[in-house]
Design goal:
single chain, mainly alpha, two-stranded parallel sheet, 4 strands, about 5% strand
Length: about 120
């Protein structure tokens, strides 16, 4: 990447770098505030889930989601170790759901399957 961005004979790259850094700080601060709101909402509106199906464990602000992808790689959110690390270290991302108390019986499926 070039150390210069010329407009005419003037290098404006230092000013652009400063503006970009200030904008990133503001975006990160907003993402942190948004995440606090998401955590508060999740704490007061615990989602229901069927035992073993679709339990939500993380809820991440959109800006923070894409910042992590930029910093840690596009596949970071698909990496189970990364998810576990976020879950362990950042309480505001955790979602504590509650079981709906529903169970899906599978005995009927097992009795109707035949092995060829």
């Amino acid at each position: 990447m070039s150390d210069e961005f010329l407009v005419g004979d003037v290098n404006i790259k230092p000013e652009l770098d400063k503006l970009f850094a200030e904008e990133m700080k503001a975006d990160c601060a907003q993402a942190i505030d948004n995440q606090k709101e998401i955590a508060n909402f999740n704490a007061n509106n615990r989602p229901n889930f069927i035992d073993g199906f679709g339990e939500v464990v993380l809820s991440v602000d959109e800006a923070m989601y894409f910042l992590c992808r930029h910093l840690y790689g596009e596949q970071c959110w698909e990496d189970r170790e990364f998810q576990d690390w976020v879950y362990k270290n950042f309480e505001e991302y955790r979602v504590k759901g509650k079981s709906a108390g529903l169970h899906v019986p599978v005995n009927g499926l097992r009795t109707n399957l035949s092995v060829a």
